[in-house]
Amino acid sequence: MARARLAEGQSVLVHEPDPPTTDPLAAVRARVEERFPADLERVRDYLRMPSISATGQGIREVAHASAGWIEDAGGAARVLETGGHPLVLGEFTGPAGSPRLLRYGMYDVQPVEPDEWSSPPFAAEVRDLPGVGPAVVARGSANSKGCLAGLFVAVDILNELGLMPATIALLIEGEEELGSIHLAESVRAHRDELAAEAAFDLDLTEDLDGRAALILGCKGLLSLELRAAAGEWGGPAVDLHSSEQAWIASPAWALVHALATLTDADERIAVEGFHDAVLPPSEDDEVLLKLLAERFDLQAHLREARAARYRLRGSDEDLLRALMFQPTMNIDGIESGYTGPGGKTIMPSEARAVLDVRLVPDMDPAETAQTVGRHLAANGFGHVECRMLETYPWARSSSAHNPAARAIEASYERLGKTALPYPMAPWCAPYFVFDRILGLPWASGGVGHASGAHGPDEYATVEGLKEHIVGVAAFLLAYARGAP
Predict the structure, then answer these.
(1) Is the CB of residue 269 less than 8 Å from the CB of residue 311?
(2) Over 50: is that where the pLDDT of 316 sits?
(3) Are strands 100-106 and 198-202 parallel, antiparallel or unpaired?
(4) Confidence at residue 346, expressed as pLDDT on a 0 to 100 scale
């Protein structure tokens, strides 16, 4: 295999095969096969439990169920109160002298619109999906209760076989989909319990062609609410007959025009000063980006996204560079007035939109929100309120050669998987607690295929869930033996 280099003498994502030896992973795989029918049903039962952080539905029940999984797998767990949804702290204890790792996880899920699903979102039905195969269709199957359950099963099997190679501290929250509101303060309060030599997270990141992600950074999140309502500028204090629009200003139009100033017609962000803090990719980033472009199938991703084309033009590297290293501004939803059957001709008294901004180095969430507010005021929309909702910052791993990253690479090679190295993931996760608070090297990845996170018909393949269990064990075994 050709070697990609960050510096003289350093190789990226390349390992020589291990010498022949007694193979504990083969024992794990055999036991996974034996147990999997029963383990799959337990995973499905877990997915049948709603845990919607936005509404609170099922949150406490699933927090305690998650703690129960840990205890059943031979660990210790406790459910802690926060200022919001409970936090689950736990530990799986490995042999004396074994490495100690920290694993982040989340038990909460996104809200659902049942009418948009082809099967009930919490039924966890196993369906044969075209082009995919048998899959568990359920909210949380991909993001991220499916992989969390896979961790618990993997550790249970390792303990059962007497092969548990490491101690794992567990940090499992119920507010990730709300922006991890209380996570940072909880991590600071329990720093001693979360001490480790490295941190990791494992999801079902594999594409349909068997390529799995290696994540070394991720964007931050800033959610904004823009709201136009009656005031000194005009607009009605209550919904008004639409004929009055002849001489009274419409909050709905005010919001629409304000939103239109944020980007140009090609959806390029047009906010003055918005990009001032954005840092370009480093030389090491560019090396990984080139390797990713060689392995990433952009057309396959379009098919998975159910989109006809990309908004941007350019080479594969150009598109992937924008995906990872450019901030985004997305409209999540707009609401105002009446859109039901019949004719209700009114001028709404209020209009609001929720936006999410994906932050890249070196953007600060609060400063970015202020920049958007100043832009609205400078363009004549000071009457449109801009309010910051949930947020957390971007995160960067220490290097592509940290021990967690090397162990993920080694596990992929052991499983015959091709790594897709992301110096920055386009999505957000609160990994900033690893590097900014705990000062830990970290990496994320994981085998097994899943898709549809946040949308209808979210799924994880049955084979992917099985492979994920094996992949967790492969990672832990690779870390304990010291990945090359």
Answers:
(1) no
(2) yes
(3) parallel
(4) 95
Q: What is the average pLDDT across 254-267? A: 97
pLDDT in the model for residue 483: 53
Residue 48, CA distances (Å) to 65, 154, 464 in order: 12, 21, 19
> Token pair 């074994």 is at which residue?
98
Tell whether the model's pLDDT for residue 9 goes beyond 80.
no
DSSP-assigned letters across all residues of 102-146: EEEEE--B----GGG-SS-TTT-EEEEETTTEEEEE-TTTTTTHH
- The letter for the amino acid at 411 is S
What does 345-366 look like in DSSP terms, one character per residue?
-EE-SEEEEEEEEEE-TT--HH
Alpha carbon distances (Å) from 322 to 273, 281, 310, 317: 18, 10, 12, 9
Determine the longest span between alpha carbons in the chain, in angstroms. Answer: 83
Report pTM. 0.89
Across residues 290-311, what is the average pLDDT?
A: 93
Question: How do residues 403-423 score in pLDDT, each as one tens digit?
Answer: 999 999 999 999 999 999 999
Q: What gap in Å lies between CA 446 and CA 469, rounded to an integer?
A: 10
**Number of alpha carbons in the 13 Å side-chain half-sphere of residue 47:** 33
Domain boundaries, the chain: 4-216+397-481, 220-278+326-392
Sign of the CA dihedral running 237, 242, 246, 251: positive
Q: Which of 143, 182, 200, 132 is nearest to 404 (CA)?
A: 200
Residue with structure tokens 């767990």?
77
Does 86 have pLDDT greater than 90?
yes
**Residues linked to residue 418 through DSSP beta bridges, in sequence order:** 211
CA–CA dist 226, 334 (Å, integer): 9
**From CA 433, how far away is CA 395, in angstroms rounded?**
8
CA atoms of 434 and 452, how far apart (whole Å): 27
Level-2 CATH architecture, domain 4-216+397-481: 3-Layer(aba) Sandwich (3.40)
The two tokens of residue 215 are 């994540």
pLDDT > 90: what percent of the chain?
91
Tally: H helices and E strands in the chain? 12, 22
Is the per-residue pLDDT at 17 higher than 70? no
**Sequence letter at residue 172:** I
Q: Is the CATH number of domain 220-278+326-392 3.20.20.70? A: no
Q: Read off the pLDDT of residues 319-353 as tens digits, 9 standing for 90 and up.
A: 999 999 999 999 999 999 999 988 799 999 999 99
User: Residue 336: which residues within 8 A CB-CB, separation 6 or more?
Assistant: 251, 252, 255, 348, 350, 351, 352
Looking at the predicted structure, is the pLDDT value of residue 11 above 70? no
